[in-house]
## 1
Amino acid sequence: MTETISLSEPPKLGGLYLKAALGALPLPLVSARKPEIPDRAVELRNFRVDPDNLAAYCHATGLRFGDALPLTYPFVLTFPVVTQLVAARDFPFIAVGAVHAENLIERTREISVSEPLDIHAHVENLREHPRGLLVDAISEVKVGRELVWRQVTTFLHQQRTSLSGGPKPEPKPEEVPPPPLRTLKVDQPLIHRYAAAAGDRNPIHMSALSAKAFGFPRAIAHGMWSCAAVLGAIEGRIPAHTTYAVKFGKPILLPSTVNVYADQVEGGWDLSLKHPKKGYPHLTATLR
């Protein structure tokens, strides 16, 4: 039977990050991590959006601040709830250092900043990947009984698995990208502002020194920052009822300038962020 943890307020992310970091230590008298996801869920009822936090988020991502929540903003609301699940000592891997692989958002209508929200989250579908372990964090936001927003966030924890060590695909040749719709500049101070608004202070984002501890040459931008920032290219043209599917490519090393592309297609948009010289994608997305 699923264990459901009911909260009266969002978890404090500082304490959860400390818990996750301590979870990396081989403490005595603590059972080893099990190779399965605990049957557990977390819910938070009657949550009210903080307009100041929403304004800070919009400032960091370049999205418009108004009565309606940006399509990606509920990620910020659900993130502490999901973090409580993945920071648990009995979770299959250590949450600190995990990266985004994919993200899927389904929204049925726009959400007003004044609406009381019920949040529910659980994690499922642990599976191997050549680069590590993948899990899906499922987050739902309801207004009363109405499901207004749902997200599947796929996290990758980099480690060896039974699929590791196989032949690597041939690297794609570098190609000069076409002229962009616009460019985006992102540096460490901007990512610090995003981290403060989103609550996501994963060490891989916060400094070059802490990112190197997890195998990155420099700090990297949050996947969900890029997921939000690219939407600025089509702001005002996003349907109330929409599905936004994102795949993350090579991380954006800080500081960087990236090319933004937005192509209108039947039923919606194809979006991407690409390296301005080598042309490889940092993010590819469809909005339908």
## 2
Amino acid sequence: MRRPMVAGNWKMHGTRASVAELIEGVRRQALPVDVEVAVFPSCLHVAQVVEGLSGLPVMVGGQDCAVEASQGALTGEVAASQLRDAGCALVLVGHSERRLLLAESDEWVVRKFAAAQSCGLVPVLCVGETLAQREAGETLEVVGRQLAAVIDACGVAAFGRAVVAYEPVWAIGSGLTASPDQAQEVHAAIRAQLAAADAEVAQGVRILYGGSVKAVNAAELFGMPDIDGGLVGGASLNADEFGAICRAAGS
């Protein structure tokens, strides 16, 4: 039985004051014990969040890591080893905003995935298609290629220590959401692709849905057989909304 997971990606939001308020809001939530909860603050606020959520069953992750696992001469980047040292347990890799806006290639994402695992972090591999790709009927091809890049380079066994997040690019921050059936189709395809290499790994890996997840649609999405929770963007900046989504995953 896969334990559901809800992860809040705070993206490039927050000041010390607003993050302190959000921490207090999260601390007030009744979080379900059968759901794994994580938040991904900006790198500047990781230490504040790790300290502020101490004692709660909430993991903290980084939003990105460098392709090099160890410290070195790479100005402006943050190594996976540094995230681990700061108290992070996970890290996002391959988020669509980085793939599209910063031109991160599949090869770059693979290197970050490997760097994260080498330092004991759990990579959350983000995959997904643009609106143009969906309208062209290329969704499963695009997602399959992004997933295959990691399988080919790191081996399918690596997904025993990873999470996958399907995030249709057209649904991120747009207010649009893939229907439960649309999302389930892609999640099932991801699991089938993994199962073709290792059925046991495929059965155990958690696949999250990301794309305008809110409290009002969370329960229906999470009710699909291959959707194991959510990677939540804007809604995670509201502690009450985020708490409601977490509870929906546990219902």
## 3
Amino acid sequence: MPVIVKTPLRVSLFGGGTDYREYFEREGGAVLGGTIDKFIYLVCLPMSSVAETRYRLTYSKVETINTPEDVHHPVIREVLLDEGYDVPFNLAVISDIPGGSGLGSSSAFTVGFLNLVRHLKGTTPTKHDLAQAAIRVEYELLQERVGVQDQYHAAFGGFSLYEFRKQQTSISPVQMNTRLWERLNASLVMVHTKHYRSASVILEEQVKATNDGSVDNDLGMIKALAYEARDVFLTQNEDAALRELGKMLSETWKIKRSLSASISNQHLDDIYNKAMSLGAYGGKLAGAGGGGFFVFLAPDHVIPKMRETFGDDAVVKIAMQDEGSRIKEIV
């Protein structure tokens, strides 16, 4: 029976960088953001009994192999080995947005694939277990320098304030009135930089600085903005709230640029400055930096101007949504 796993990408608005163990185990971290209406889909079918190989994996590459040990894709290989799952299957990976865009796609894939494998094994993990398992795969098995917000976003879905401490994570849905929720979603827009990037170099420099405490003051200001933004969402004046949130997004971007010389460059600065000159409330680069998408809050009349300036292909309208990783069987 075919199985489809649908896992959301995310936009982190405030607090990014405070979700790394090197920081939150000392100081506590806080991230405010949510999952968007863009997804990674895993389509899995049983492998034909007459196929020449036991596994076929189709993503940016195509792998035809016979054992989990032979899989090149690191997440697929480590999850299959760690879960002890060796039943043949045919897997295709499809995404609304290419990887390397700063939207948490790597962790969304890990969460989605873990969800798939556990479903195939006949179990249904809780959202918390799914997030924790994905963190373990990335942090311990693959020894990647990763934060922990992306895995929670992908597993839980929704628009929330995530608070990270050494021994626990707490999740609080952001409270706001319906009108502000609608206005927020109407104003959210992304502009692609036309630069795809690997976050590893940027993160290595940033994690080193985080580890030695040299950016604690900057991260403390970024964390404070997450709490301030939560309070802004409680206002009854939607126009004032969006203007204030835009200013806070830009303040976050200003601080984030100081964390590493690799985060921004003249090309990225030009995109930000053009969007602001068109009338955007504010914005920041998604993810670690160096490329991918800018996320802006902008009035309705500004978004068409952004399309004219940056091109239809570069401007992507998004909205927050409440869905975490989900399984669907096709009969």
## 4
Amino acid sequence: MIVAAWHDGTVTAPLTPPHQPQPNDPWQAPPSGSHVLPGGNPGAEERRAELRQSAVIAAVLTVAGVGLGLLWLWLAPRVPLVSDDTAVFLKNSEGEEAIGADGTFVLLALAFGLVSAVAVFLFRRRGGIPLVVGLALGGLLASLLAWGIGTWFGPTSDVVAHAKEVGKGVTFDAPLKLHAVGAAMLAWPIAAMIVHLGLTALFGPRDPEPEWEVPYGAPHAEPGTGSAFGPAGIADEPGAEGGRPSDGPGPGRP
């Protein structure tokens, strides 16, 4: 209820006190003791679901690192060594087996990154920062696990004891090592992120096109007649300049 007051012939109305919010204010805080209904924030639920899926993806990819480690142990070329009871030497000093071990790991990691990105895209059918983070983190942890499996189950790292065990002049395998550790560890995460982003850009869902609507109160122009405020609308006005003449006689006309 608004109470008006007269002051020198003018009417003034009191303003709403600042401590009393408008009853229809959508931004005012809910009254004390009220509770938000469950499901009232679908955006937060979707973000929590994406975080859970990201954690599951990272865990599954980490376990897949066991396969990468076993394949690397099986396919990586061995570096032959030989001992003469005083020192251990490379049997083939010009061999490229050490570089081949790094190359095998990187190629296998790239293949695992490609497969994991395709699988995640087919599972989720959309992009998102949590999914990409899950892919990258899972690929990195899987690469670390594969590296550990290859070196643990490969030839022993105690070269001197191994040389004494096999004897003088007997060829044995050097321990499986990675020389370019940084490139080997990042091959899977980088490949997975690039492939997933490419698949999302090519086959992911598209945002709907904005629909342009005629503002309220604006006249609708018929096809071929032009706008109501354009030349066609002016020409159609009876008696307008450039329009068709009126049917009835006017001033100064016979």
